[in-house]
Design a protein that fits this description.
The chain has eight helices and seven strands. By secondary structure, the chain is α/β, with parallel strands linked by helices. Strands 3-2-1-4-5-6-7 form a seven-stranded parallel sheet, sandwiched between helices.
């Protein structure tokens, strides 16, 4: 793809299943990939895989739930790359299926701090960099539970919040060259989804039954959706919540 030559993308949660596969996919299209994860060793493992495949990548350790660490991350990105053409805000915590009455103050605040406030914080830095250079593309990992309801109150609430952030930012910055969209994966055989699949319990069977495709998705299927949203082929797509869910959202 000629339109990706020398472009840079930041992927948060880049040490996880969806993040690492997406990093490899973008590197394969010629992007320089900044891989960020709260676990620096996991980010480095993704970077090693990208470099082994002939791509360009660098590892960054940061907790997006921490304002100072996030500010330092973007200062380093600006110094190392000089620009940011795309970002996949993929970092987040699961909820464990805990309903509203059973969620502790601590668990609620942890989910909000990372999933919602962390995504908002990254978007602020990303939009500033992109406006300064004349444009860019942001994709948030919203989850299908950002469109549908889910048993876990804190996780579902934060993902609905990310959906709102996506649409609000798209309205504010579309005319200034910054496109903001989101992917909304259903059950995926990677990352948090893989933990659910490994349980193999009745709750999993009920959840999987909500996917008309009859199977979990793959990290590569999510990565391809992110690639498309960041490509010139999606140039008129703003504020869209792209379901990658095997039909889950059709219920």
């Amino acid at each position: 793809m000629n339109d990706t030559q020398a472009k840079t993308i930041l992927i948060t949660g880049g040490g996880g299943g969806i993040g690492s596969v997406t990093a490899l996919a973008f590197a394969g299209r010629g992007y320089r990939v900044a891989v960020c994860d709260v676990r620096l060793d996991a980010a480095q493992a993704t970077v090693d895989a990208v470099r082994s495949a002939g791509g360009q990548a660098d590892a960054y350790g940061a907790d997006i739930g921490d304002a100072a660490q996030t500010a330092d991350l973007f200062a380093r990105l600006a110094a190392d790359y000089g620009r940011l053409d795309a970002a996949f805000n993929n970092a987040g915590l699961g909820g464990g299926g805990v309903p509203l009455l059973d969620i502790s103050e601590e668990d609620w605040e942890r989910n909000v701090r990372v999933n919602l406030t962390g995504t908002w914080r990254c978007m602020k830095h990303e939009v500033k960099l992109m406006l300064a250079q004349g444009g860019g593309c942001i994709v948030n990992n919203c989850s299908i539970l950002g469109i549908n309801g889910g048993a876990n109150a804190s996780y579902t609430a934060t993902k609905h919040g990310i959906a709102g952030l996506t649409k609000s930012a798209a309205i504010s910055y579309a005319a200034k060259g910054v496109r903001v969209n989101a992917v909304c994966p259903g059950l995926i055989e990677a990352g948090l989804g893989l933990n659910v699949i490994k349980r193999g319990d009745e709750a999993l069977r009920r959840f999987l039954a909500l996917h008309p495709a009859g199977r979990p998705g793959t990290a590569l299927e999510v990565a391809k959706a992110v690639l498309w949203l960041c490509s010139d082929d999606a140039s008129f797509t703003h504020g869209h919540l792209l379901a990658v869910d095997g039909g889950y959202g059709s219920h």
